[in-house]
Amino acid sequence: MKYTRLGSSGLRIPRLALGTMTYGSPTSQVPAWGAFAWEEAAPFYRQAVELGITFWDTANVYSEGASEELTGRAMREFSTREEIVLATKLHFRMHDGPGGQGLSRKAVMEQIDASLRRLGTDYVDLYQIHRFDPATPIEETMEALHDVVKAGKARYLGASAMHAWQFATMQHAADLGGWTRFVSMQDQYSLLYREEEREMMGLLAHQGVGAIPYSPLAKGRVARPWATATSRSGNDPVADATFVDADKGVVDAVEHVAAERGVPMSQVALAWVLRNPVVSAPIVGATKPRHLADASAAVDLELSSDEVQALEEHYAVREPKGF
């Protein structure tokens, strides 16, 4: 596995991150299509360690905390705390109390402690805000996150899925207050969703912030021929609202390049994401043994300029979503 720095920070990470949203509780509401319990999830954590994918991303809301519990267990059983770069997130509703959601000082302090208990550790490497919170003053959020870092409960801070102006405003507030800045942005980015190229990618490059994109395979749409259905098809309202019929041209191009190369479509699509210099480590979920192996191989796949042109030429511009 190749390694890089997370943006301009000193944190060394592998070029891929393991996304753990699909590991937790089969009866969970997040994700909507269910999740793997420990017996099904454990082999993927173990395989990730074997492949050198030791950057693991979870969130408090995934399976109502069960994903964090499984991730912490896997870290202890298959690796060590020192070997794993552990990331989690807060924002979405965990309970009805005043600290159960959002980015208020009360929520930040309550949710970091709850996440650490579930993970079974006294710190996370990367603590991320899952969304922007318009109901809380930015200064309140940034100072609270700074205090989490100074208390030793998080080493670095990250953000996710917001407008570029919101992210710039939060970074500016951190500078004015002398507080800890974000070093990463977890945004949606793939061959079928390139709207982050409008403003966010340029901002990240300017500020030395590393992108750790979620859904780099467009929720699996670019990893299989256009007409192929899966158990997730029709059960993911986010995907259904994001992708359009015009995307068929992009998927067909991925299928063609993959056939010419003799590799899975997922390798081609992921290699395209990895070639963006702002991207530090795409977040890859896995539900089949081949998924992580294919993703690992994509790190070494170099696309030609002609292949890149073929993959990009059919892109359909759309309204930004997911904020």
Give an overview of the whole structure.
- The structure is a single chain.
- This protein is an alpha/beta fold and 323 residues long.
- The chain has one domain (3-218, 273-302): TIM Barrel (Alpha-Beta Barrel).
- 39% of the residues lie in helices and 12% in strands.
- It has eleven helices and ten strands.
- It has helices spanning 38-51, 66-78, 105-119, 138-150, 164-177, 200-207, 237-242, 248-261, 265-274, 289-298, 305-312, and strands at residues 3-5, 12-14, 17-19, 55-57, 85-90, 124-129, 154-160, 182-186, 210-211, 283-284.
- The strands form two sheets. An eight-stranded parallel β-sheet has the order 9-8-7-6-5-4-3-10. The chain has a two-stranded antiparallel sheet with strand order 1-2.
- Helix 2 (66-78) packs across helix 3 (105-119) and helix 4 packs across helix 5.
- The longest helix has 15 residues, at 105-119.
- The chain is globular, with a radius of gyration of 19 Å.
